[in-house]
């Protein structure tokens, strides 16, 4: 079973690699900011091939560790960027993401007033005192980390600011890795530069950034690049699924 899972994950990474080398242009803006509607069902791409990544068998079941995309036909390249047909929330807001899965830079220095603003408080729509993660320091050396506990397919990020003050992250980058001992990898844009995601402009609105292609990893880091007043975050991760649930 473990060997099958590893093989599926490797196949998915191969498909991503093929798409990145064959796609020539993307009409979507690299730094697109999308409004979260709370009811996202699918994102699509137009493929010249009949074997579109969004053509999913009706009987397919939701999976986290296997690729939701069918392999391309033999000797036929994938003609579009793989995208997730469906998404589900990882569980920050619902509480299924546990405190030991969430960490941040300089966490051992969170005492006194800051002990109420630990990274575990960074849950979408959290309210009341201590409703967000507040970084101990406001500079570009800070990070917020999620441990999925196993390799998963991350397809998007939702962010909010602090619920009770005008403090939020305006832009950020993402790093990921599958094994704790490996180096962190930056999520890149199509030009090979570190992708910059645009975040919030107020304390309460939720901003969604979809990952095209999605990330296959266990550890995810969000690195603030800009902020209003202070680095403050409430968030949710979206996981790629091959069927709506």
Summarize the structure.
InterPro entries: FA58C, Galactose-bd-like_sf. The chain is mostly beta strands and 245 residues long. It has one helix spanning 2-22, and strands spanning 34-35, 86-89, 102-104, 133-134, 144-160, 168-177, 185-186, 197-198, 207-228, 232-241.
CATH topology of the domain at 86-241: Jelly Rolls
DSSP E strands, number: 10
Overall 3D geometry?
globular
For this structure, the quaternary state is single chain
The CATH top-level class label of the domain at 86-241: Mainly Beta
Query: pLDDT average, as an integer?
Result: 77
What integer value in Å does the Rg equal? 18 Å
Determine the N-to-C terminus distance: 24 Å
- Unreliably modeled segments: 17-79
CATH architecture of the domain at 86-241: Sandwich
Number of helices: 1
Pfam family, one: F5_F8_type_C
Organism: Tetraodon nigroviridis
Keywords: Disulfide bond, Signal
Protein name: Retinoschisin 1
SSE topology sketch:
Elements: H1 2-22, E1 34-35, E2 86-89, E3 102-104, E4 133-134, E5 144-160, E6 168-177, E7 185-186, E8 197-198, E9 207-228, E10 232-241
Antiparallel strand pairs: 1-9, 2-10, 3-5, 4-10, 5-9, 5-10, 6-7, 6-8, 6-9
Fold and architecture overview:
This protein is mostly beta strands and 245 residues long. The chain has a domain at 86-241: Galactose-binding domain-like (Jelly Rolls). Helix content is 9%, strand content 30%. It contains 1 helix and 10 strands. Strands 1, 2, 3, 4, 5, 6, 7, 8, 9 and 10 form a 10-stranded antiparallel beta sheet that branches. A hairpin with a 7-residue loop joins strand 6 (168-177) and strand 7 (185-186). Keywords: Disulfide bond, Signal. InterPro entries: FA58C, Galactose-bd-like_sf. This is Retinoschisin 1. Residues 84-240 form the F5/8 type C domain. Residues 1-25 form the signal peptide.
């Amino acid at each position: 079973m473990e060997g099958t899972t590893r093989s599926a994950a490797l196949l998915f990474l191969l498909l991503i690699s093929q798409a990145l080398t064959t796609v020539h242009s993307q009409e979507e803006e690299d730094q697109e900011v999308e409004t979260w509607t709370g009811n996202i069902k699918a994102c699509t791409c137009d493929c010249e091939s009949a074997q579109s990544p969004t053509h999913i068998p009706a009987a397919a079941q939701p999976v986290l560790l296997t690729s939701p995309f069918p392999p391309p036909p033999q000797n036929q390249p994938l003609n579009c960027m793989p995208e997730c047909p469906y998404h589900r929330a990882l569980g920050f807001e619902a509480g299924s993401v546990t405190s030991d899965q969430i960490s941040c830079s300089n966490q051992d220095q969170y005492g006194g007033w800051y002990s109420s603003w630990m990274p575990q408080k960074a849950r979408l729509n959290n309210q009341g005192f201590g409703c967000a993660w507040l970084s101990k320091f406001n500079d570009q050396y800070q990070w917020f980390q999620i441990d999925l506990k196993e390799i998963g397919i991350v397809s998007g990020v939702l962010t909010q600011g602090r619920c009770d003050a005008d403090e939020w992250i305006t832009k950020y980058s993402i790093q990921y890795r599958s094994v704790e001992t490996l180096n962190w990898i930056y999520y890149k844009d199509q030009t090979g530069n570190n992708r910059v995601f645009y975040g919030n402009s107020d304390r309460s609105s939720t901003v969604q950034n979809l990952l095209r292609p999605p990330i296959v990893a266990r550890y995810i880091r969000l690195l603030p690049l800009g902020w209003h007043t202070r680095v403050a975050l409430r968030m949710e991760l979206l996981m790629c699924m091959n069927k709506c649930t």
